[in-house]
Amino acid sequence: MAKDVNMPKLGQTMEEGTVVNCLVKVGDEVKKGDVIFEIETDKATLEMESPAAGFVKFVVAEISQTLPVGAIMMILGDKDEQVPMGYVEELTGGKGLAAGATITPAAQMPTTIAPLDVMAETGKPMGKIMASPRAKKLAEDLGVNLATVKGTGPAGKITEQDVQNAGAAKPAKPAPAPQPARPAAAAVPLSQATLGSTVKVNRLQRITAERMLKSKQEIPCFYLTVKVDMTELAALRTKMNESGDVKVAYNDFIMKAIATGLEKYPIMTGQLAGDVIKLADAIHVGLAISVPDGLVAPLVKDVNKKNIREIARDSQALIERAKNDKLDLSDLEGGCITVTNLGAFGIESFIPIVVPGQCSILGIGRIADTCVPDNGNILVRKLMNMTLSVDHKVANGAYAAQFLDFVKKTLEDPKQFTI
């Protein structure tokens, strides 16, 4: 019996996925658990396993196509089963192909429900419409208002044939006067960029851009900056790194101080959900890591339950996986705050952008030897700036200030750390 394979929900926040690769073709036998697609989410590219066993009868999803969670991607069936043409056409908007074809069909199905910005001729708002990309393109070419077209496809979606019928009595738009062709500039990798060149945007850069835009649009932030005296902590770190099987970084101390602060000020782990604030179940701290393709912020898990050396060991393993593109979804979901440190680049301070789904992010500047007056004397202390960006929907200024002050005082009193 024919079975539909649908776009799975590969993460808590996933709403849609892009098909990066299809690893099977029509006629192949697949077993439950076999990898059949590679799917790009808003966080990572993940392998999709088959939810059932069978023979591939039809591949609906196209490479580079973005589909909502639950959309049909493939049809499986018994070896000699013939999938009814009507069933295939229903899934593909009338673009059916005979079951058992020897090639993977490039079926086109509607993948998004776009808001309608125009009104029907009756003057009443139409809300949303469904139409395949080809139907939309044809409507644009023929000057057909999709709001006036009645769809005959599944769930009332508009097909190319519907648009052709609507435009049959209407002349197409006059073709624009030909313009002199301009040679397109070849896109180059970021590493080869020069003035005037066109730079390719890779998958990670695009995802980062989309998420940062979402953050700036949806998260109203305020910013708090403090100066931390790291003199004693620097001495402790040097002493710890003289022995032991793992080198401890400043970030490891900072993450531990943050985790301890989040236990005392738990609202800083929250997210607004309707008329309530949902607090995190565990304290997972994101660590911003520069990788060849851009930037990722995987999570060090349960930081509040670990000592400094355990945090250092986990963070080093995380950095290694990130640089070798070995992160999985569990490394990226469930964080409540992120640490991003630009001190190694000589940056004094900066204002970081909150990661969507988290309450705040802490930006760390460089540690600088600074002359500080002390009872008529001048002392040289190691000072560091920290800037906290906070979602004002979740926490107010006074609460966040107390949290940041707690983190500062914890770092300035290293006796509090379990090593």
Descriptors for this entry?
419 residues; alpha+beta; Chloramphenicol Acetyltransferase; 24% helix; OB fold (Dihydrolipoamide Acetyltransferase, E2P); Dihydrolipoamide Transferase; 22 strands; 6-stranded mixed β-sheet; 8 helices; 3 domains; 4-stranded antiparallel β-sheet
Could you characterize the architecture of this molecule?
The chain is an alpha+beta fold and 419 residues long. The protein has three domains: 3-92, OB fold (Dihydrolipoamide Acetyltransferase, E2P), CATH 2.40.50; 122-167, Dihydrolipoamide Transferase (Irregular); 220-416, Chloramphenicol Acetyltransferase, CATH 3.30.559.10. Helices cover 24% and strands 26% of the residues. The chain contains eight helices and 22 strands. The protein has helices at 85-92, 133-142, 160-167, 203-218, 231-240, 250-264, 308-323, 397-412, and strands at 3-6, 16-22, 29-30, 35-40, 45-49, 54-59, 66-68, 72-77, 114-115, 128-129, 187-188, 198-199, 221-229, 271-273, 276-278, 285-287, 289-291, 294-296, 299-300, 337-341, 360-374, 377-391. The protein is elongated, with a radius of gyration of 28 Å.
Structural class: alpha+beta
Q: Please compute the radius of gyration using only Cα atoms.
A: 28 Å
Strand content: 25-35%
Q: Report the average pLDDT across residues.
A: 83
- The CATH superfamily of the largest domain appears as Chloramphenicol acetyltransferase-like domain
Number of strands: 22
* CATH hierarchy, class of the largest domain: Alpha Beta
Q: Could you give the order of the helices and strands?
A: EEEEEEEEHEEHHEEHEHHEEEEEEHEEEH
Low-confidence stretches: 95-127
Q: Largest sheet, if any?
A: 6 strands, mixed
Number of domains: 3
What is the fold named in CATH at topology level of the largest domain? Chloramphenicol Acetyltransferase
Strand order of the largest sheet: 13-22-21-20-16-19
Oligomer: single chain
Query: What's the CATH architecture of the largest domain?
Result: 2-Layer Sandwich
The end-to-end span amounts to 60 Å
How many DSSP H or I helices?
A: 8
* Fraction of residues in helix: 10-25%
Shape: elongated
